[in-house]
Amino acid sequence: MNRTDRLYALVEELRAVAPRPRSARWLAARFEVDARTIRRDIGALQESGVPIYPERGRRGGYVLDRAYTLPPVNITPREAIAAAVALETMADTPFLDDARSALYKLLAVMSPSDVEAARRVADRIHLGTPDRPATPARQVLRTAGDAVVRRTVLAIEYVDRHGHASRRLIEPVELLGAGHQWYLVGWCRLRQEVRGFRLDRMQRASATDEVAPPRPVGAAWRSRFELATAPLNLPGMLSS
C-alpha cells in the first residue's frame, strides 16, 4: 500500500473505532509498516487539519474526533491532474506550499482507486521547464505572502534597480503578480511613503511581531507598475 492510500485508510480505521483509540503498534501491524512510520503519518494528518489526538495510558493510542467526517466531495482523477498541473505553475509565487497542502487534501478525500487512476495518468504527462528570469528565494516568497495575509510588519534587505542596498521596515498592503514577477506594495518607513518592492530584489525578509495599521492603496498608484491588475477572483460562496 502506498503512502497516500495508507493515510486515507488510517483515517477510515480511526473513524470506524472512534471514540476508542488505536495504538501506533496496532496500526503498524495493521498496515505492515513500523510504528515510526505510523507516527509520521499521524503527524502529517494532524498538520493537514484532521482532528486526531493522542490518548495517554496503558490502553491509549490515537483517537479521531467522532464529529469529524471527510468532506462530501467527489474529486475525479482528471480534476486531481488539473490541480497538479496548476501547482507546477506556482513555483514562483508566495503560495506554493499552501497549494501543495491543498493538493494533498484533495488526494486525501479521493478513493484509493481514483488516486491510483490519477497516478497512472500523471505518469504519462511530462512538463518541460521553461526559461525563467531570476526568481525570489522560497523563504522570501513565503514570508511576503504571510505578511500580507497576517498584516505583519516586514524587515527587509533590498537592492534597488541601481544596485543600492538598504534595510527597511515595510507595512505590507498588497501583493501584485504578473507572470513570474511579484511585487510587494507597502508603506516604507524609510521613505515615509507607499512603495513597491520586487520580491526577486529582496535579499532577506523577516516578519516582526508588529501588526501593520490599515493603509489604502489606490488604483492610480498601481498604474506605476504598468500592470493591468484585478482582485483575485474567488467563488461567491467564499467571498460573500
Automatic annotation (TrEMBL):
Pinpoint the Helix-turn-helix type domain residues.
6-62
Residue intervals passing through the bilayer = none
PROSITE patterns per record: WYL
Q: Which residues form the WYL domain?
A: 140-205
State the InterPro entries in the record: CBASS_pafABC_assoc_protein (IPR051534), HTH_11 (IPR013196), WH-like_DNA-bd_sf (IPR036388), WH_DNA-bd_sf (IPR036390), WYL_dom (IPR026881)
Pfam families attached to this UniProt entry:
HTH_11 (PF08279), WYL (PF13280)
Q: Which superkingdom, per the lineage?
A: Bacteria
- From the Swiss-Prot or TrEMBL record, give the protein name: YafY family protein
